[in-house]
């Protein structure tokens, strides 16, 4: 059962990509994951496919897939850069993405090609407005 937008969790400290991924600046790196909205749309996640460490990707590139009982969904980069780490916990426990999409359910750590790209992403309020418009 999908939840209403007002029941979902969105954090102020994140940048949001229109394709339902988020970016969080951590020093020289950017942590990436999917939003609470995305995990809610997917339903119970049963498999996550992530890229290899060292791969260079551009903003909007597919970096992996999330699979639930009802759908396989592509995951898209919110920023350009090199993958420096992936969350190996998701191999054994992909459902962490459902229970904690912004913390334990993170997917990638990226060395950004140009941090200024974050200006193209959405604030929490703009992301919520986009979701409400698309409902």
Provide structural commentary.
By secondary structure, the protein is an alpha+beta fold. The chain has a single domain (19-115), classed as RNA polymerase II/Efflux pump adaptor protein, barrel-sandwich hybrid domain (OB fold (Dihydrolipoamide Acetyltransferase, E2P), Beta Barrel), CATH 2.40.50. Helices cover 19% and strands 33% of the residues. The protein is built from four helices and nine strands, in the order E-E-E-H-E-E-E-E-E-H-H-E-H. It has helices at residues 36-42, 89-92, 96-99, 124-134, and strands at residues 15-16, 21-26, 29-34, 45-49, 56-57, 62-68, 72-76, 81-86, 108-112. A six-stranded antiparallel β-sheet has the order 1-2-3-9-8-5. Strands 4-6-7 form a three-stranded antiparallel β-sheet. The chain is globular, with a radius of gyration of 14 Å. The mean pLDDT is 96.
* CATH topology category name: OB fold (Dihydrolipoamide Acetyltransferase, E2P)
- By secondary-structure content and strand pairing, the structural class works out as alpha+beta
Give the overall pLDDT as a whole number: 96
**What is the string of helix and strand elements?**
EEEHEEEEEHHEH
Report the helical percentage.
10-25%
- Total domain modules: 1
């Amino acid at each position: 059962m999908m939840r209403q937008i007002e029941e979902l969790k969105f954090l102020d400290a994140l940048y949001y990509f229109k394709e339902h991924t988020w970016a969080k600046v951590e020093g020289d790196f950017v942590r990436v994951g999917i939003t609470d909205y995305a995990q809610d749309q997917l339903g119970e996640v049963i498999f996550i496919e992530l890229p290899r460490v060292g791969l260079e990707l551009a903003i909007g590139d597919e970096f992996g897939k999330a699979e639930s009982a009802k759908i396989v969904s592509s995951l898209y980069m919110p920023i350009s850069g090199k993958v420096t780490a992936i969350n190996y916990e998701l191999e054994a426990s992909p459902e962490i993405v459902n229970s904690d999409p912004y913390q334990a359910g993170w997917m990638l750590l990226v060395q950004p090609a140009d941090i200024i790209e974050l200006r193209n992403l959405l604030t929490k309020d703009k992301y919520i407005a986009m979701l409400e418009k698309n409902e």
